[in-house]
Amino acid sequence: MLIHDSLRHGMPLCSRVAILALAVSPAVLAQNCEPMKYGTICGADLHATYALSGANRTVNLRSTSGVGAQVGLLLAGAQRANAPLPGNCVLYVSPLLGIPIVYDSTWTARIPMTTASSLAIGAIELQALALTNTGSLTFHGSNGLEIGPWGGVRSRVEDFTTTNLLDESLTTLDWSGNGSLLVAPWAFAPELGDFDPRFGGRDTGTFDGAGRRIYEWNTDSITIPGSRTPSGKTINVTDGVLRFRNFRLAATDRVRFLGKHSVQIFATQDIIVAGVLDASGTDSAYPTGRGRGGKPGVIGQPGFVGGPGGGEGGRGGDSPNNPNRTSLAGSNGASPSPVGHPLASFLTQRAGRGSLPYPPSGLDKDVMFSAYTRVICQMATSGGSGGCFVSAGSNGITWDNQKGTERAQAFDFGPATTPRLPLATFYQRLPAGLASASFFLVPGAGGGGSGTHPSGCFDASGFEPLGWSAGSGGAGGGGAILLRSRAVVALRTGAMILARGGSGGDYHVDMRDFDNPAPGGAGSGGSVVIQSWAAPNVVGTIDVRGGDQGHYHVERYLLRVDSISGSGGDGVYRIESANAPNLTGLTGYPPVSADNGAALRTVDRDAPTGVAVSKWVVTNPEPRGYQYFVLRATIGTQSRDYSDDALHGLPLPAGLRVEFQGAPLDASGNPIGTPTPWHWNLRSLGNDPARGNGVRFRITIDETQAGGAVNVGSLTFRYGC
Predict the structure, then answer these.
(1) What's the pLDDT band for 135 if we cut at 50, 70, 90?
(2) pTM score
(3) Beta strands 253-258 and 276-278, pairing class
(4) Residue 555 · residue 401 · CB < 8 Å
(5) Burial class of residue 53 in the structure, from the number of CB atoms within 10 Å of its CB (0-12 exposed, 13-18 middle, 19+ buried)
(6) What does each C-alpha distance from 428 to 572, 583, 596, 604 come to in angstroms?
(7) pLDDT-based confidence at 526, cuts 50/70/90?
């Protein structure tokens, strides 16, 4: 009988521990987690599986199909061989160690070996030789089997006590670093990072009366550079919805918002206002530069813009001397209403009315002169009426100032311009099933424009047209501003949030260009809504009053008939928190009432869902080297471990989902290739050829499906082999 020299000389018979000790090596990146067969089976089959349990890795070797075999040898070495064995079998291992093995009645030998799962193991070459119990020694030679090299199993634990691994740009759950992952009251990602008035708006280079630097932010287009955003990408916001990590406005700054969209400021952390947030409408102003060479202007003045989302003022009426005139009357202001608002039929009818021309015909023949021996005209139309909201705007009127020496006649006083009706019960009409922000976040309405009139002109005895002044534009309505924080909203002493209506113009008769338009009406106040999950600290000022009336004065020229526009009605402000807020420190205009504060309702929160996404983690995984995850979570009052491996936890219940994604990462941990699809099973990620050298996780919570409040305490995932 021929026996190969490697079996004849010097091969020690050693323990299974010795075989593993043979392969313990310095850090060697593993190449293949699963044992790999090679060579040809010569009567016996050698294969292996391995399992992880706690801190241990168990390798289960099995030699099967050794027909007639009772004993044998397990050869172990660090290198492969290719030498003949008796019976036309092949020796595939250069053996350094060998241990006896025993076959059972099914001609199967089982050889378990256990080591620490964290231990790095180099490649081990194995082969089983089964010996039959016959008169002569007969070999059954197995195939060769390589296990390892294995770099060791590692664990990554995220216990949510820090935000080091948080990807803010993609996470809508509450991952605050307090040891829990929770559904947030409002699910949004802070895509814009930290607020800074210099990034996103325009520094006007001017200062208000208190020395605050004025910035303008236009809600139609706000661009935050990539240097400020968590994603590193430049973001352009065109709908007025600004999602920050935190929002802090210094006492030295004033931000004025413009544009067609209401401004909505969200923050995952605190909102602290020490300066001024201004969402007010634009005041109506005298149309300077319109008259030329002793002649009044002939084109009606455009209405003035509202605050963010606020209604524009109505246009002034054209002069009869404008050959392209469209209307001698002032137009009504604009009255915006949020889409789908339950009170839309009222909200679209709040704007100030435009005043009529006076005399109504707009004809020179109907103009009369009552001053300075019937040379100067005092016929005046009223100003536009004010926009209304929860309180009424006032009439536009003409009146006798009783200061001039020229007695006015009854024909000098144009009719009043009446406002629309307010909705004093607006607060009480909040529907039970509608979120507060959707109901209360309503911009103000614009004031009415004024019609044309000849007040202040003189009788030229038919040598030229009379000097009819084109009308003034109405003031803009106050805008709408929402502040919503998943932490706390603070309004410091001296700070202000303004959503006032614009005021009507206030000016004196012009006896040089004779451009003397009636004033436009004031805009109504807009709205301010504050939603603070924690108790808010509001000790500053909130002002949502309508604008002041405008006044065209003639008394300093001894005339008697003044034109006055209507003031605007008040808007709304609402402050809500998880528990009803204490507003005793707030200075409110109009004064604070029971309607201004309330506890948030369930409907005021977003749907109880959200997602958390981690940053990329470099794992350098071996092929198929992802093992399993364990999610520790409490649903209601029941805490359990959930896993994609039945040995380590229960299957994930409805309402909880854990997914993993792999990608090639550069030295800084950033993806440099296309990531894999999301895998719900960690082992399946290991089988994805595009997995690369890094991984990130995504956790989705839906409390409606889960049947109760969900608190995720930790996620552990194991990788390597």
Answers:
(1) low
(2) 0.85
(3) parallel
(4) yes
(5) exposed
(6) 12, 19, 11, 16
(7) very high
